[in-house]
């Protein structure tokens, strides 16, 4: 039924245009705004499921392509398309957005229509990032995202929101503008912004190195990797719950996606040559940032640092695979990238769920400090059940989605270098330490104070959000095959591509 | 010999001249209460002139090549007329509230427009100078429009003295060029410059011409007049001198540097590269410290001139097309930005400090949104119009092999983003001192037009192809 629709355009523009009526509902009719936003987000999600109906999983080609001239004089195209990698992330985006709208239903009661509208615009732009096949179009979505997020953190955030949101914006802008110069240089070489063309163009080692570092700055800030990660804890702590969830669940993934779409195919030789840089940065993220997480006193900050550590696995998996691929181990390379992708999707669910859980507590206690909690299980048993499940997933417990990705990445790492593998595996222990210690201090033990004693358990809305996420976490943990199958073909193709040197 | 075709070619300018004189006469007979007639007539004059420009009566050149009518002149004239019309709409409530609603404002602005039209169509050094002085003298008088204001008078004096100095420099440079090439005709200069035996004198002249152009643009280090004039002039005048003359300045740079001195391009390109870097640095860094929005926008103008120069440095049609696109996008965005200041000012309240915008989102969410769009466009964040101008000039710099220049531009774009975001922050994240909704501002035409203007920045950002195509076609780039 969806075969002839411009499905991807609908997914991008429906939420963006849907934001207009939401905005028009105005602040005086918050319930109308909430309902409209939910309808738009839910509709977008259902339509996004339509992608799967005609999608050929065995093909590595870009599907559902829409290719129109945008700027004729410069051969810039409005070119959309998805392969398995994009589909997974698009679905993650539309799925998470529905939950975020529902989460914001109760926790946001100021300027509701603006909040909902900003969320919808953000959703559309994020979908656009994952669908764009033209580098300039990608860049426009990539940067455009900053505006609604800037507003979201700045208006609905916590006490230091202005500092956090300015830092977020300037950091990300700083990263990406060098990518723009790099893309212009590529255009100068090829006369096109088509990603497919850019992936084919021959580049000398020096050119590749410059481009590689231009891309690295852009995506490393976005992921974020150590040492450019410092904006993330601030942004997370100050962002409203919905903003945190979107940031952790989707926006960070754009960095990882960028590595897979830009760095690897366009600069394979430089990526191989400098893979050690990224691998070193990833291992520092995984180990050092893990320790930093251990000492946090603010729950959101702890989860933010844990996000950085988990995203370290993603970059590790992507770049470890280069050495494997060049060494002739295509299967191992595929496992590494596959692991990185599964880790991204799974981290989307888990970190989203963790931030949503903290949001549930924050709405009741208005504090995120761990020391203000203790014994929550006694007053909120239902909440505690979910929280413990997500915490376990965050440690990478087998049976949850958190395990699958990390396991695959470690598997690939061991094939490349036992030391790297060992260090990566070591992090599972740190991860368990900070997560379980968090659970112990917040959830278990005696009721710590009167405020905790007065807590009421989750309402239906909150339960629905967390339960949905719990189902996703368990589903992909026990049965990751559908996700794997979806991405198999494009990853195999990518591995084939990166083996071939582009040196001119 | 003046022929009929010459007159026909010059019809838009001739019509404008006659119409201005008629308007001046008519205005004398109007009572103050009837001043709106002048206002609407002035807009109508701009409209008719624009229509005449598009009719292309006559021949591509007139008066033996002194006057050139080509695609570039068309684009620049149309947008100069358009932005001036916007300025008139935005300025009316402001002028009326302050007792400055006089016919002279319109007449002087229209004369300045006439100067711009001549400047961008100049085929000879004489016409360049004629157009420039017509524009400049009208501007000096406009800045001093509010003669009771000490600040305005000071700004006007500063503008006049420095402007006269720059004109002198330009004239001196022109005389050198004339001495070296023996002609005032720009095309002939182009041919003669390549062969001139007086190369030293010629290049000496080029330096002075570049200084004169840099002054008119307000490029660092010739920018000293700009912040004072922007701040000191009544906002209704600032909005005018901050927008349309930038288009004319581009036209002048193109005529002088490309049409006239294209054959010594590498020399002036180096000078412009230095000016670009200085403008980017001084404009962006000084803007951070400003608390007065008009002054901040003045420094931001300096940085935008730096970006525009990145396009000129390229020295190829694609580079000029990029610079022209940048000038158009800047003119439209600056009109909206100053227009917002006009919109929020009332009698006795100027709304020109950044802190005056505090909590605007609580008080008038729609205008806060429009202002945010404008600021993001100035900052160059996609998908807004301003980003694509920046993209094109960065591309021009890379195409010219000046990747380092593009990187410098990129770095200063990052620094620049901070002060624009600071205004957005003030509007959205700070609480208003007085949370009451703002009294319905200004008059209906202004509210509508400024909404259209600001939304156009978003729409043109999504559909900038045709406009760029027009600019590219004007410079003879085939699609």
From TrEMBL, chain A:
Primary localization class, coarse: membrane
GO MF annotation terms: oxidoreductase activity
Residues that span the membrane, as ranges: 6-24, 36-55, 84-105, 112-130, 136-156, 168-188, 208-232, 244-262, 274-295, 302-324, 344-362, 383-411, 417-439, 460-479
Membrane topology note: Multi-pass membrane protein
Keywords: Membrane, Oxidoreductase, Transmembrane, Transmembrane helix
InterPro entries reported for this sequence: NADH_Q_OxRdtase_chainM/4, NADH_UbQ_OxRdtase, ND/Mrp_TM
A UniProt-annotated Pfam family: Proton_antipo_M
Ranges for domain NADH:quinone oxidoreductase/Mrp antiporter transmembrane: 132-428
Subcellular location: Endomembrane system; Membrane
Family: Belongs to the complex I subunit 4 family.
Family annotation (PANTHER family): NADH-UBIQUINONE OXIDOREDUCTASE CHAIN 4 (PTHR43507)
Protein name: NADH-quinone oxidoreductase subunit M
From TrEMBL, chain B:
Organism: Tahibacter harae
UniProt record similarity statement: Belongs to the complex I subunit 2 family.
Membrane-crossing segments per the record: 14-30, 37-54, 74-91, 103-120, 126-145, 157-180, 200-217, 229-248, 268-289, 296-314, 320-345, 366-389, 401-421
EC number: 7.1.1.-
Domain NADH:quinone oxidoreductase/Mrp antiporter transmembrane: 122-415
Ubl conjugation found in the keyword field: no
Protein purpose: NDH-1 shuttles electrons from NADH, via FMN and iron-sulfur (Fe-S) centers, to quinones in the respiratory chain. The immediate electron acceptor for the enzyme in this species is believed to be ubiquinone. Couples the redox reaction to proton translocation (for every two electrons transferred, four hydrogen ions are translocated across the cytoplasmic membrane), and thus conserves the redox energy in a proton gradient.
Compartments in which it is found: Cell membrane; Endomembrane system; Membrane
Entry protein name: NADH-quinone oxidoreductase subunit N
């Amino acid at each position: 039924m969806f075969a002839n629709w411009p499905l991807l355009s609908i997914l991008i523009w429906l939420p963006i245009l849907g934001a207009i009526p939401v905005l028009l509902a105005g602040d005086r009719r918050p319930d109308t705004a909430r309902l409209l936003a939910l309808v738009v987000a839910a509709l977008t999600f259902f339509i996004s499921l339509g992608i799967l109906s005609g999608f050929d999983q065995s093909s590595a080609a870009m599907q559902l392509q829409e290719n129109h001239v945008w700027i004729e004089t410069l051969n810039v195209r409005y070119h959309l398309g998805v392969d398995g990698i994009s589909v997974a992330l698009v679905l993650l985006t539309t799925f998470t957005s529905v939950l975020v709208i529902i989460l914001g239903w109760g926790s946001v009661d100021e300027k509701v229509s603006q909040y909902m509208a900003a969320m919808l615009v953000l959703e559309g732009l994020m979908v656009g990032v994952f669908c764009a096949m033209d580098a300039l179009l990608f860049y426009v979505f990539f940067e455009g995202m900053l505006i609604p997020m800037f507003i979201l953190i700045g208006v609905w955030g916590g006490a230091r929101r202005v500092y956090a949101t300015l830092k977020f914006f300037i950091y990300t802008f700083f990263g990406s503008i060098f990518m723009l110069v790099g893309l212009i240089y590529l255009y100068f070489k090829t006369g096109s912004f088509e990603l497919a063309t850019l992936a084919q163009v021959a580049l000398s080692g020096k050119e590749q190195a410059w481009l590689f570092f231009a891309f690295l700055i852009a995506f490393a800030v976005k992921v974020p990797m150590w040492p450019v990660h410092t904006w993330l804890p601030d942004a997370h702590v100050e962002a409203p719950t919905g903003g945190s969830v979107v940031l952790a669940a989707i926006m960070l993934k754009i960095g990882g996606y960028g590595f897979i779409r830009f760095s690897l195919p366009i600069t394979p030789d430089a990526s191989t040559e400098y893979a050690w840089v990224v691998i070193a940065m990833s291992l520092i993220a995984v180990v050092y940032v893990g320790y930093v997480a251990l000492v946090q006193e603010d729950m959101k900050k702890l989860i933010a640092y844990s996000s950085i550590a988990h995203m370290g696995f993603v970059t590790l998996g992507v770049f470890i695979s280069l050495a494997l691929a060049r060494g002739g181990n295509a299967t191992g390379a595929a496992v590494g990238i596959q692991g990185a992708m599964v880790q991204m999707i799974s981290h989307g669910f888990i970190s989203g769920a963790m931030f949503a859980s903290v949001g549930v507590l924050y709405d009741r206690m208005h504090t995120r400090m761990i020391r203000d909690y203790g014994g929550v299980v006694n007053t909120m048993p239902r909440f505690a059940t979910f929280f413990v499940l997500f915490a376990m997933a965050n440690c990478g417990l087998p049976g949850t989605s958190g395990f699958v990705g990390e396991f695959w990445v470690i598997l690939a790492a061991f094939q490349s270098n036992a030391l790297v593998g060992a260090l990566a595996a070591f992090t599972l222990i740190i991860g368990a330490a900070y997560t379980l210690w968090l659970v112990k201090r917040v959830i278990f033990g005696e009721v710590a104070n009167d405020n905790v004693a007065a807590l009421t358990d989750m309402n239906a809305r909150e339960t629905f959000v967390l339960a949905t996420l719990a189902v996703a976490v368990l589903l992909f943990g026990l049965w990751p095959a559908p996700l794997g199958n979806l991405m198999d073909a494009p990853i195999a193709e990518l591995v084939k591509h990166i083996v071939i040197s582009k040196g001119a | 010999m003046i022929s009929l075709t010459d007159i026909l070619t010059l019809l838009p300018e001739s019509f404008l001249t006659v119409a201005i004189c008629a308007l001046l006469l008519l205005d004398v007979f109007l009572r103050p209460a009837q001043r709106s007639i002048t206002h609407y007539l002035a807009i109508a004059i701009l409209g008719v002139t624009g229509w005449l420009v598009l009719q292309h009566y006559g021949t591509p050149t007139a008066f033996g090549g002194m006057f050139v009518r080509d695609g570039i002149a068309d684009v620049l004239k149309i947008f100069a007329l358009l932005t001036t019309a916007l300025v008139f709409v935005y300025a009316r409530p402001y002028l009326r509230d302050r007792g400055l609603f006089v016919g002279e404002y319109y007449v002087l602005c229209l004369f300045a427009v006439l100067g711009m039209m001549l400047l961008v169509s100049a085929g000879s050094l004489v016409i360049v100078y004629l157009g420039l002085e017509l524009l400049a003298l009208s501007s000096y008088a406009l800045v001093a429009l509010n003669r009771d204001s000490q600040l305005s008078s000071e700004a006007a004096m500063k503008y006049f003295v420095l402007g006269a100095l720059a004109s002198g420099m330009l004239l001196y440079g022109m005389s050198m060029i004339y001495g070296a090439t023996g002609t005032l005709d720009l095309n002939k200069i182009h041919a003669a410059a390549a062969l001139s035996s007086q190369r030293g004198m010629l290049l000496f002249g080029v330096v002075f011409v570049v200084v004169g152009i840099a002054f008119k643009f307000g490029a660092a280090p010739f920018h000293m007049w700009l912040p004072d004039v922007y701040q000191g002039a009544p906002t209704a005048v600032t909005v005018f001198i901050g927008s349309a003359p930038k288009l004319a300045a581009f036209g002048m740079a193109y005529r002088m540097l490309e049409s006239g001195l294209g054959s010594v391009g590498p020399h002036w390109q180096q000078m412009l590269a230095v000016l670009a870097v200085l403008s980017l640095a001084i404009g962006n860094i000084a803007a951070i410290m400003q608390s007065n929005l008009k002054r901040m926008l003045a420094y931001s103008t300096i940085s935008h001139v730096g970006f525009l120069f990145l396009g000129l440095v390229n020295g190829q049609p694609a580079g000029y097309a990029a610079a022209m696109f940048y000038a158009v996008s800047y003119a439209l965005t600056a009109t909206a930005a100053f227009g917002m200041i006009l919109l929020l000012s009332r009698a006795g309240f100027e709304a020109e400090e950044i802190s005056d915008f505090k909590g605007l989102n609580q008080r008038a969410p729609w205008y806060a949104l429009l202002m945010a769009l404008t600021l993001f466009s100035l900052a160059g964040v996609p998908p807004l119009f301003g980003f694509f101008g920046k993209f094109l000039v960065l591309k021009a710099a890379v195409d010219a092999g000046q990747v380092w220049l593009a990187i410098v531009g990129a770095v200063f774009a990052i620094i620049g983003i901070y002060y624009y975001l600071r205004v957005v922050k003030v509007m959205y994240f700070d609480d208003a001192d007085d949370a009451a909704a703002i009294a319905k501002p200004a008059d209906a035409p202004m509210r509508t037009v400024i909404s259209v203007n600001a939304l156009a920045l978003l729409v043109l950002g999504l559909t900038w192809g045709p406009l760029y195509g027009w600019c590219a076609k004007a410079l003879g780039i085939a699609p």
